[in-house]
Every structure is written in structure tokens, then in C-alpha cells.
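Replying to the earlier thread about multi-chain prediction with a worked example.

Input:
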Amino acid sequence: MQNRGVIFMRRPEGPVTPDIFDIRDLPTPEAGPGDVVVRNIYLSCDPYMRGRFKADSKKSFQTGRVIPSRAVAQVVASNNPAFRPGDYVWGFMGWELYSLVPGGQGLRVVDPALGPLSHAITVRGMPGLTAQVGIMDIGKPSPGETCFVSAASGAVGQVAGQIARLQGCRVVGSAGSAQKIAHVTGALGFDAAFNYKTAPSIAAALEEHCPDGIDIYFDNVGGETLEAVIDRINPRARIAVCGQISGYDSASAEWAEPRNLEKIALAGAVKTRFSVYDHMDQYDAFVPRMAKWLQHGDVVYFEDIWEGIGNTPEAFIDMMKGGNLGKRLVRVAEDQG
Ligand SMILES: NC(=O)c1ccc[n+]([C@@H]2O[C@H](COP(=O)([O-])OP(=O)(O)OC[C@H]3O[C@@H](n4cnc5c(N)ncnc54)[C@H](OP(=O)(O)O)[C@@H]3O)[C@@H](O)[C@H]2O)c1
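Result:
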């Protein structure tokens, strides 16, 4: 039970580089009264973590500490009656092999009967619920409407598009490689998709692939794509601002607003920025619903899993550059679930 983890050494300026991390042996935690010690199995790499690397973010990560992250894990020691050794759980742990969860705070038991353990932090977890909230609560889809999703092959985007399709929308996606576009229109079943890196312009690609305009935009990227969408929205369109990854490497913690915002009001449209954490009351109902969709094949889900604690920084850096096809995770222990 030798612990090992990734320490956050210094705040990056611009794109993240490996030297902001240090990988080292760490003391293996012991459970005090009420505490739980877990062996992590899957660690999450998420774009929001880039914001926490900044000094001026409300929830900035502290330097000199293990990088906090969601994980799926197995309980190895527990002084808490809610958790038994051997239980599979998910919660906020860290990029390390073993984590102490004081008081079992935030831990939830994972039922292996629902499907793959990893799904607890992917499609049945935060990314899946984010997609559900953005499409259903903000997008309010109706059959026949056009829904456009950026970062369409990613952790959240792949689910957003599929939920919109289940509601009868025509779904169009964008992503950053030919392989991703083939995946989005093939395995994920989107009606159309384009590569925003090679299209003549995003505006031209939207004109070609969304000939009837855009009724719902699920925004994962912000920037140029958001501006081009605003130029193409239909009356009473809904823009669900999930994230704006194109701006995450900038020095500021605040996202830049598009320059054509006035067109939203002129169209009687709405643009709503949301956080999944304001909708956690839906989580308990969402998990079995998504499990059923997956079991029936109504939704398919792809994960892009790297191996080994030492590869976790590179797995994150690669994801931020678009190297992931599906949700990026790192497996740091055998999955026996
Ligand atoms: N609101 C919430 O509660 C909430 C919750 C979860 C996630 N989010 C947000 O949702 C978005 C997607 O997150 P995810 O976990 O699903 O990540 P993801 O899509 O699996 O991975 C990130 C992807 O972003 C794309 N990307 C990177 N730089 C880009 C740029 N400059 N312009 C356009 N695309 C770029 C890359 O794909 P390409 O190859 O397509 O470029 C990359 O694969 C992020 O903005 C994240 O912050 C929000």
C-alpha cells in the first residue's frame, strides 16, 4: 500500500506543461474516527481543472498539494458505518493511489450492477448529468429543431447530442479532427458534423450543416464558435453555456463575452450559463434513467482511458489539446468490478 500521487507545483501561464506537476511517493493515509481510506481506480481529467490552476479562481487548487479530482475507488479501510471495506465508491479524491476521505464526506456508493464502474464519474455521473441539464432544462428541445453541439466527441458533448436526438432534434456537432467527425456521425449518430479546424470558416460550416438555422446551442467552447452561432440562431433560440474551453488558457478567470451579444435579445433568444453543481438534486433520478438508456442502446458512451499514475499529467495536457476521443480517465489500479 505505498501511496504515490501528483503534486501541483506552480501555476501555469498559458497552456499547461508537465513541469507544473511533480510525481512522488506519499504517506499512505490512515483512517481516523469517521474517516474512509480508498484505493483509487479511475481518476478524472476535466477541463474545469485548468481554471482551478489559476490564482484568481474562487476555488483555486493550492500549490504543494495533491491535485484534487473526482475518482472511482474501492474502500480499503473505514471507520464510518455508511461504507464497508470492498465497497465501490465515487467522490472527490485526488490524483493519487490512496486517498483519505475525512468523515466519508461526499462519497457515494457505486452499484456495479448498473454497468461499468468508470461510468459513475462519466456518463452516469457529472458529465452525463451536465449534458442532461443543458439539453433538457435549458435547451428545452422540440422535435424537428436543430441542435448544435461543440466539442461533440468529448465527455459531455457526446451525451448532449444523443439526448437531443432522443428528443427528435436534428443534431449537428463540431470537433477538431477527421477521426472525431467520423466518430460523431458514425458511432454517436449525429446527423452532421464538421471539423472546426479545417472548415473554411465556422460561419460557412454552420451555414452548410445547419441550413434551417440553430434552435439550441450546447456550448462547450465559447470564443469564435459562439459568435458564429449567435449570427445563425433562430427566433427564440436557447444557448446553454456549459463551458468555454477555448479561453481556459488565458490569464483571466473570467470568460470573454461574444461581441455580437445584442443579436440574442433581437432574436428573443436566451443564453444561460449553468453549472451542474446547481442541479445535483436531479442526480438520484438521473443515474437509473441513464443506466436504462445505456442498457437499451439508446445512448452509447466512449471513454479514452490512459494507464498509470505517472501518466496522469500528460493525460490531462493531451485532453486539453484535443487528444481525447471520449471522456479522458486514468486507470491507476485494476478494475475488478
Ligand atoms: N457547466 C458545467 O457544469 C460543466 C460540467 C462539465 C464540463 N463543463 C465544460 O464542458 C466542456 C467540455 O468538457 P468535457 O469534460 O466534455 O471535455 P472534453 O470535450 O472531453 O475534452 C475537451 C475538448 O475540448 C476541445 N478543445 C480544446 N481546446 C479547444 C479550443 N481552443 N476550441 C475548441 N475546442 C477545444 C477538444 O476537442 P476538439 O478536438 O474538438 O478540439 C478537447 O477534446 C468544457 O468547457 C468544460 O469546462 C461544464
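DSSP finds nine helices and 15 strands in the chain.

Feel free to reuse this layout for your own posts.
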